[in-house]
Amino acid sequence: MKAQFKTYISLTKKEWNGMVVLLVLIALVLAAPYAYQWFSKDNTINVTEFNKAVAALNNANQRPLNGFKTPKNSLYKFDPNIASANDWQRLGITAKQTAIIKNYTSKGGRFRKAEDLQKIYNLTREDYNRLAPYVAIPAEKAVATAVVELNTADSAKLTAVKGIGPAFSKRIIYYRERLGGFVNKEQLKEVFGMDDLKYKEIAGQVKVDAGHIRKININTISFDKLRLMPYLSYKQVNAVIEYRKQHGDYNTIRDLENIAIIDAGILRKIEPYLIYK
């Protein structure tokens, strides 16, 4: 039994040498990391120098155009609406901030007072407090405009009114012709497309001389011509003509009250335009 066991575990010289080599290699692999740490030491990071480098990089990113930084005590009066990129640069504003400001003004944005600088979202509170005392925006001059008389104005005069373009001008003239002229400027609200907002925009620029309206002789006018009156419907015009045929000429507005389909509101509107000769 012993002899068999001995034979089983016995090694040849060649096998013994191979085992020794294997053990040496394993030892070298295990010892390598320790040897590396011994012969190669890591450099220690200088935290102070690292922080200085980060600060320098941040300052470079915030530097104004051309790398020029204006001292905060060299500010001067300026108009933000016309200030150039170089002007903003001299005021200590960064390139990124300047680009946003110029984009705002190029698209029609306007600064009307110093507080409007706060509309620029990337302008810091510090920058605003520093620049606000130096903002100098000239007062806007009111443009004197002539008041246009609606009953005599041609298309050119009407388009001179701020808020009235060629299309509105044509509509006003067309309605004026159908109506016979304006008795008051509030009648502009009856023009197609004229809402309250548009009326408020132009009301102060127009006036009405009711002496220029064209009168209607209610006793002689034909159906076709009376049909043009925008306040009367087809049936109402027909009723006016038929009543006249049956009862004779009208003498006053009160005679028209006898027509059942014409109410008091309509009569008030057409009364300034009627004559009874």
UniProtKB/TrEMBL annotation:
UniProt superkingdom: Bacteria
GO BP field: protein secretion by the type II secretion system
A GO term from the CC aspect: type II protein secretion system complex
Pfam families: HHH_3 (PF12836)
InterPro entries xref list: Endo/Exo/Phosphatase_dom_1, RuvA_2-like
Alphabetized Gene3D superfamilies for the sequence: AF1531-like domain
Identification of the protein by name: Helix-hairpin-helix domain-containing protein
Organism encoding this protein: Mucilaginibacter terrigena
